[in-house]
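Notes to self after the Tuesday call (sharing in case useful).
The group wants a holo model before anyone commits to mutagenesis around the pocket. I volunteered. Ligand is nickel (II) ion. Logging inputs and output together so the record is complete.
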Amino acid sequence: METQLISSGFQYTTLPRSYIRSEPDRPKLSEVADYHNAPVIDLGFGDRKYIVQQISDACQQYGFFQIINHGVSKDITENMLKVSKEFFDLPIEEKMKLYSNDPSKTTRLSTSSNLQKEKIHNWRDYLRLHCYPLDKYDQEWPSNPSSFKEIVRNYCIEIRKLGLKLQEAISESLGLDKDYINNSLGLEQGQHMAINYYPKCPEPELTYGLPAHTDPNTLTILLQDMQVTGLQLLKDGKWLAVKPFPNAFVVNIGDQLQALSNSKYKSTWHRAVVNAHKPRISVATFLCPCNNAVIKAPSELIEDESKAIYKDFTYEEYYGKFWSRNLDQGHCLELFKNSREI
Ligand code: OGA
Ligand code: NI
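Result:
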């Protein structure tokens, strides 16, 4: 039978075989460092230079940071998490109306990661939405719960503003003009969302919600459940838990910013683990270059011509490659390296 949603209301007491990882590929949860967290940057404290410096340090050392005082109201984030939960709590028959495994669909509910390619599944269901321009896509979005469209629209508008502002600060932190990144990715750059739902898992040591991966887009802004941890990032060869911080978003550098920064900033490996006690929700917003935007490092970031780490490519080429592979197969950017660097 085709794999379908795991948020079906069925209470699993053992993990189905198709989710069980081989021994060396398991999360080894007891080895994960939780005494440490991704840097928290207060966007409301200190002058511009200080904020930009903290972003620069975090992007080089972690590829991740959390932000507080980001200007998005608590109402907007709380409603977003609440309506996401209401959506996943709907009866399975209702949710299945939106089910599809076709990655080219602009609105779809699906499960695991890339069912066509993967051998072992992941303990996750997700609703994937295209969010920009809103008027083009929002009629496809769920109309149940009845407040879904309005709440998600408001959230998308605020997050886009925040994302574009963050990309300005990131541009400055690379010593570039503040509009450099937004201009080179296109002012009409895309915005996608994945509302991730990780049900309670009977055997969390044997599987993942999402296995180690890097994000293929430019920048990811994640709203995570305050009560339940699950996100981990790889730093200096060790997995560390990104613990939820009150009223924060988690921000991470995607593959496109690693390429654009000539690898000064890293698109860091991260994963989501699951737990036996509580379902977990996270809302990931992905800013993505326009399809025809050419991704290349500016000359300021390349010492000389021979030091450009990546070939120039369009986002369309990149995204095609990304979906043709399995999520944990290795860094997709490796395929775009200049040959002399391999
Ligand atoms: C993602 C992702 C992490 C999480 O959706 O790409 O990394 O905690 N999510 O859900
Ligand atoms: Ni990710």
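Two things stood out.
DSSP finds eight helices and 14 strands in the chain.
Residues 14 and 202 are 5 Å apart (CA to CA).
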